[in-house]
Amino acid sequence: MKSGFQLFIANYYPCCPQPELALGMPPHSDHGLLTLIIQNQVGGLQVQHQGKWIHVNALPNSLLVNTGDHLEIFSNGKYKSNVHKVVVNNTSPRISVAVAHGPSLEAIVSPASPLVQSETNYIPMKYKDYMEMQQMDKPLSSEGREVAYDRPSTQEPFKSTSNEDNNVYIAGYVLFYPCYSGYFEKPGFFIENMFVRECYRKCGFGKMLFSAVASQANKIGFTKVDWLTVGWNENAIDFYLGMGAYIMQDVKRFRLSGEGLDAFAKNDQDGGDKG
Ligand SMILES: O=C(O)CCC(=O)C(=O)O
Ligand SMILES: [Fe+2]
């Protein structure tokens, strides 16, 4: 790499009497290739792993190394950028100094060709444009830039995102429909699914999709927008709370499956046999 872009970041997290009500640094992944961090041995850094936040116990005099978004792109997803956040405590302030190493601002980063077997999910983009796109989304950043929706377990159905004829890329979608309920005078929307492709996350598309549904509801006089999120998905929960939503405590979700569902098959058969 002939040139690069380095960012020097000094972070001070004062102690807080009610740490559970405060957040030192919201969940995010770093832009660049690698970020090197030294810190004063006061914990607080947490890394997201399999939907859980893992506390980082840094060794004394060690450097912490974070993988960034552009390493993920360059390695064609082999090295994922890690999502991390910093929580505060009520006894000691944390100080950290980070140096983020990225490519030159003008560099167009794309997956290294030897690592691309067939298709890739990563669209080449100028490093500068990528950073600008993230900054466009200030309100979301303050609540958590990483927006992880419940997403299909495989990318298979989305493989062919590029249409060579007109250069259309599908970055994500939201599937919603009107629903009617006896309790409300007016109907609302139910969001069945919202998904943003991994390489387009942290760019504000999730916020854009969600806002489109909410403003359409408003426009046509609907009184609510409902959806479900799995309980462990803290990022999604933070995101939705940040969008002004609240969690409904009095709703119970029911499911009929396994033997309960099979019982109906039997009933049907019995009924059929009898006549
Ligand atoms: O304070 C830390 O350890 C993390 C800092 C950080 O994530 C950042 O500056 O991007
Ligand atoms: Fe960071």
Kindly describe this structure:
The protein has 275 residues and is of the alpha+beta class. It has 2 domains: 5-112 and 123-152, Sandwich (Jelly Rolls); 171-242, Aminopeptidase (3-Layer(aba) Sandwich). It is 23% helix and 25% strand. The strands form 4 sheets. It has a 4-stranded antiparallel β-sheet with strand order 1-8-3-6. A hairpin with an 8-residue loop joins strand 11 and strand 12. It is globular. The model is unreliable at 137-167 (pLDDT under 50). The site of 2-oxoglutaric acid (AKG) has 11 residues, from strand 1, strand 3, strand 7 and strand 8. Belongs to the iron/ascorbate-dependent oxidoreductase family. GO terms for molecular function: acyltransferase activity, transferring groups other than amino-acyl groups; metal ion binding; oxidoreductase activity. It comes from Solanum bulbocastanum. Pfam families: 2OG-FeII_Oxy (PF03171), Acetyltransf_1 (PF00583). Keywords: Iron, Metal-binding, Oxidoreductase.
Short description:
This protein has 275 residues and is an alpha+beta fold. The protein has helices spanning 69-74, 127-135, 138-143, 205-219, 234-242, 258-274, and strands at residues 4-13, 25-28, 34-39, 45-49, 52-55, 64-67, 84-86, 94-103, 108-109, 125-126, 172-179, 188-196, 225-226.
Name the descriptors.
275 residues, alpha+beta, Jelly Rolls, Aminopeptidase, 4-stranded antiparallel β-sheet, 13 strands, globular, binds 2-oxoglutaric acid, binds fe (ii) ion
